[in-house]
Amino acid sequence: QEEKIFAGKVLRLHVCTMEGAEWLEEVPEDTTVEKLKERCLKHCVPGSLEDPKTVTHHKLIHATSEKVLTDTKTVLEENIQDRDVLLLIKKRAPPPLPKMADVSAEEKRKQEQKAPDKDAILKATANLPSRNVDRTVAHHNMRDFQTELRKILVSLIEVAQKLLALNPDAVELFKKANAMLDEDEEDRVDEIALRQLTEMGFPESRAVKALRLNHMSVTQAMEWLIEHADDPTVDAPLPGQTPSEATAEAGASSAEVTAGPSSEASGEEAKDELTEIFKKIRRKREFRPDPRAVIALMEMGFDEKEVVDALRVNNNQQNAACEWLLGDRKPSPEDLDKGIDTNSPLFQAILENPVVQLGLTNPKTLLAFEDMLENPLNSTQWMNDPETGPVMLQISRIFQTLNRT
Question: Are 155 and 339 in contact (CB under 8 A)?
């Protein structure tokens, strides 16, 4: 009678086995899982409890939560509720340990499949005829892609200039383009990269110089700043960016912008003014060699003009410029100013694209082409621009599509 009074709540549990047997077990909530498992085995496998290992070789799983119940915990501790479904499963037997003969055979197989070492390769290829392998093929293939893209930009610049020159407001458009160019020159430094360096404690003017010298790479700029921390000329302006020249250039720009054609100017005078603006835009986009790369390559014995040409062909990359100087020197600097064949399927497909056609009437597109022509590292900036990005995306897609066919 006392057991009935002080006994815990009785739960009715639905138990199933993998063989399809099903039954109800009524157990108090303070019953351990091990005891419940013994009752289940006694019910479904008579005589199984004679072997004490039988209990440890089985497990109970809660069907809803898919949780394996712990033998030492009670039904209440495992949060089992009335009418819950439990699954009695025999545990998988551990895989047998491999025999020594099997281990030896496996090791032998691994040794047979092992790649040969350098000595074995030299021994096996000793009698083969030697060949001069051109290790620059992959590099030339990549450079050929860049050269083709450059040719496209050269030809598109010519088309854009002609289209914009046909506009009645051509002079005003190019004055606007020139102003945009001036603004772009002032904002050339990546603000995020500059902020990262200034937060490290570097002076802003010095950080700007480091970023321009290292193509906006924060890591390389930081290394340059640390390396030149004690250099007395570290704050000297870059070549072509002295304050006096910058002031003179700004004055010339404002003079050209304000000096528009008079109401009595002829079409020929307007054409001459456009030509001068074209020249001014090109002059601002003239190639500026990396001073450090120039010094390093000249110390190797190369002439200054050759070094500048090499850096121009290889986008200021010193290692690539050195390979160009030591190699066949292709493409030549003259090749950089050649456009693509205007009758080629690639160029015709680009010109027939509506997005490109619309973009060529925008002065900003012309500036983007000019900038990418002389500064390929700025391509990402123009790809992310809402006005020039769609044009560049279409050109890239057409180029890739025709290259695959």
Answer: yes
**Beta pairing partners, 358:** none
Amino acid (1-letter code) at residue 286: E
170-186 and 363-374 are packed helices; what angle lies between their axes, rounded to 10 degrees? 40
Least Cα distance to 69 among 45, 36, 27 occurs for: 36
Task: State the amino acid at position 363 in one-letter form.
Answer: P
In this predicted structure, the answer to whether residue 238 has a pLDDT above a threshold of 70 is no
Instruction: Give backbone dihedrals phi and psi of 8, rounded to 5 degrees, phi first.
Output: -75, 180
Residue pLDDT, tens place only, 373-389 = 777 767 777 888 888 88
CA 109 remoteness from chain centre = 41
What's residue 260's pLDDT? 44
- CB contact at 8 A, 258 and 239: no
Both tokens of residue 290?
């990396």
Q: What strands lie across the sheet with 85-90, from one edge to the other?
A: 22-28, 10-17, 85-90, 58-62, 67-68
Q: Is 54:46 a contact under the CB 8 Å cutoff?
A: no
Check whether domain 10-90 has CATH 3.10.20.90, yes or no: yes
pLDDT the model gives residue 4: 52
Close Cβ partners of 179 (under 8 Å, ≥ 6 residues apart) = 253, 257
CATH number for the region 186-228 comes to 1.10.8.10
The structure tokens 């292709």 sit at: 330
pTM of the model: 0.40
Do domains 10-90 and 186-228 share one topology? The answer is no
* Domain locations along the chain: 10-90, 186-228
Write the single-letter amino acid at 274. L
Q: How many DSSP H helices and E strands does the chain contain?
A: 20, 5
Residue with token string 């690639």: 346
